[in-house]
Amino acid sequence: MRKLGRLATVVALVGMGVAARAGEVEVLHWWTSGGEAKSVGELKKIMQGKGHTWKDFAVAGGGGDNAMTVLKSRVVSGSPPAAAQVKGPAIQEWAAEGVLANLDSVASAEKWDSLLPKVVADVLKHKGHYVAAPVNVHRVNWMWANAAVLRRAGVASMPKTWEEFFVAADKVKKAGLIAVAHGGQPWQDFTIFESVVLGVGGAKFYSDAMVKLDPKALNSDTMKKSLETFRRVKGYTDAAAPGRDWNLATAMVMQEKAAFQFMGDWAKGEFLAAGKVPGKDFLCAAAPGTSTSYTFNVDSFAMFKLKDANAQKAQADLAAAIMGAEFQEVFNLNKGSIPVRLNMSMAKFDDCAKLSSKDFVDTAKSGSLLPSVAHGLAVRPELEGAIKDVVSQFWNEDKITVAAAQSRLVAAAVAK
Ligand code: BGC
Hints:
Elements: H1 2-21, E1 24-29, H2 34-49, E2 53-58, H3 65-76, E3 83-85, H4 89-96, H5 104-109, H6 112-115, H7 118-124, E4 125-126, E5 129-130, E6 132-134, E7 138-139, E8 142-146, H8 147-153, H9 162-174, E9 178-180, H10 186-211, H11 215-218, H12 221-234, H13 246-254, E10 258-262, H14 266-273, E11 282-286, E12 294-297, E13 300-303, H15 309-323, H16 325-335, H17 351-366, E14 369-371, H18 381-396, H19 402-415
Parallel strand pairs: 1-2, 1-3, 9-10, 12-14
Antiparallel strand pairs: 3-13, 4-5, 6-13, 7-12, 8-10, 8-11
């Protein structure tokens, strides 16, 4: 009896504690596909478990362009959400506007500095203060394939070079299937483009041309070859590609309509959500010529300044939960990415994730761990938009020559 009485008191106190500090967190994100929605659902569950109210603010549109437009209007009108999916240099721009909250007390209590790779922590800090919390590491330079389609077409293994890729793609075409499932949207076009540049030119060239936007690299023969190779890939996509969402392209691979897709590992989240088995139903490999490099895309939530004390508490709990081991595991198992928190066990992860984790560590040492331009980790948003436009125009309009695209790239890079 006495024991029960004590338990009741503890339960009551815990209940009071939760009630006293419960708040609402409004979270803006663009995770609306099957695998994405399942992943963000895990964060919602954790926050609800802490007694908070989750207000979902999902803005559909892969790559987040629509979400960023909506975010701007909310912040300008003075009612930002508690947290918004913002990445890379865009975090700095929001922080410079003075609208982001300082997360240092959560970060130091939870020891973020020792749990994050420095290259990641630097992206999340503005003038030395944490303003965003990271959820994962996505690898962008992946190639996905349907194993049955490859068998049917007589492709024995995943192509390792672009030349091998075109041989394989011809075999798929001959078998009457689509070689490359693609969604024609600027961020998807650029996802292929940056993998081609990396595969053709290597890590140093990618860094010079794509990250530093060095005019010499942009004007070089290696860039010429990259653009030619990129245009060749287009010949293996179907006529209905323009405007297609990325997850519908992934579905084409799943449904044995297409052989390959070049996409970050959120595509794996889609395969898994549909019950497909890695290594059996679908295959993963680094995009041709890129196995010793890694283009990274870290999803993170920037936290906005809020007035209400309960909302601030809920926001701090959200930041702590995001970096917590429990969330990092369950979220990334669903999302297709790997935990950004260091020293996590990979025991429950599949072989694609284990490869990603190993390559992340190896490439960080060798200097070939590179930020993805397509996914907002490398250059300022305005500049990114300008070079994406050039690349998508080149992809869409066959009459634009390689030479013209090269000089437009240089012009876009120096103008901004
Ligand atoms: C994000 C991913 C997301 C993908 C497709 C990427 O830019 O980093 O989290 O799944 O876009 O929407």
